[in-house]
Write a structure and sequence with these properties.
about 280 residues, alpha/beta, about 15% strand, disordered C terminus
């Protein structure tokens, strides 16, 4: 457990979460490759290449050089994509692709931090068009993500405006602390990758989640807690067991489910009456 509710006379605090393999079980960007293929944004060869990248990422994580190659490849790949089309594709497939791969343990942690009065911030190297709707789905308060340059025609130019990676994540955390009044010594951070050590060491309560080998060694040397998340679960399957105040995104999901169930019962009852006549 994370302790008592925050004393609001003290400076505010937050919990900073990396996204891929920390909150969700896969790479958020690569997970949408099939949707982008079906929408005509990428070809079959690109699908196979992103599938291989997903395999490498899942097998042992990606080191700095691999991440740089992946960044260059994805930046070139999305050149010319219409931003609004990308957002619509993500919105249409978000629940089908992302909801089933959210770690139950991460969702519980997010709830606990909110219950304790802390903000939850997702800090991810993936693009904002993907990360922002995922953050909303999770009920996060803020999102820090990579931003691509968008041309006057509403399409990606292939250039990176802001790369949320490595030390840049730590800088974003410190900037948020200044603007939002967070006391970093009392804040929390979670990540699976050694590339996020700068972000982890910027807070008073760093945690390694499903760490790669380098981060596992670093955590052992520094005495950081190591967490094992391994139970992906749909958010709606968790709702009946929740005992904490629900975030707006979770409440919306529950309301949609309840409405569907009610509609089903009304249909069934009317069918039964029609059969009896």
């Amino acid at each position: 457990m994370l302790g008592l509710v925050e004393n609001h006379s003290l400076p505010r605090t937050a919990a900073f979460f990396d996204l891929d393999k920390t909150v969700i079980a896969k790479s958020s960007t690569l997970t949408f490759s099939k949707s982008f293929y079906q929408g005509g944004l990428i070809n079959r060869r690109a699908v196979l290449r992103t599938a291989y990248a997903q395999f490498v990422f899942m097998a042992g994580g990606a080191d700095h050089d691999q991440m740089e190659r992946m960044r260059a490849y994805l930046s070139a790949l999305c050149r010319g994509w219409n931003v609004q089309q990308v957002k619509e594709m993500v919105a249409e497939t978000l629940h089908d692709l992302i909801d089933p791969i959210i770690y139950d343990e991460a969702a519980s942690l997010i709830e606990e931090h909110h219950t304790a009065g802390r903000d939850v911030v997702i800090v991810s190297t993936s693009g904002a068009e993907v990360v922002e709707p995922i953050g909303e789905l999770l009920g996060a308060d803020r999102v820090v993500a990579t931003r691509m340059v968008v041309g006057e025609d509403g399409c990606f130019t292939g250039e990176v405006e802001y790369y949320a990676y490595g030390p840049t994540k730590a800088e974003a955390v410190r900037e948020l602390a200044k603007s939002e009044g967070y006391d970093l010594a009392r804040c929390y951070a979670y990540s699976d990758s050694a590339t996020d050590v700068p972000m982890l060491e910027s807070v008073g309560h760093p945690h390694a989640v499903n760490p790669d080998r380098t981060l596992r060694r670093e955590a052992a040397a520094r005495g950081w807690p190591v967490l094992d998340f391994h139970r992906p679960v749909r958010l709606k399957q968790r709702l009946p067991a929740l005992s904490v105040p629900q975030r707006p995104a979770l409440v919306a999901a529950a309301a949609i489910g309840a409405a569907a169930a009610t509609a089903g019962l009304v249909w069934y009852a009317s069918r039964r009456r029609a059969t009896a006549l």
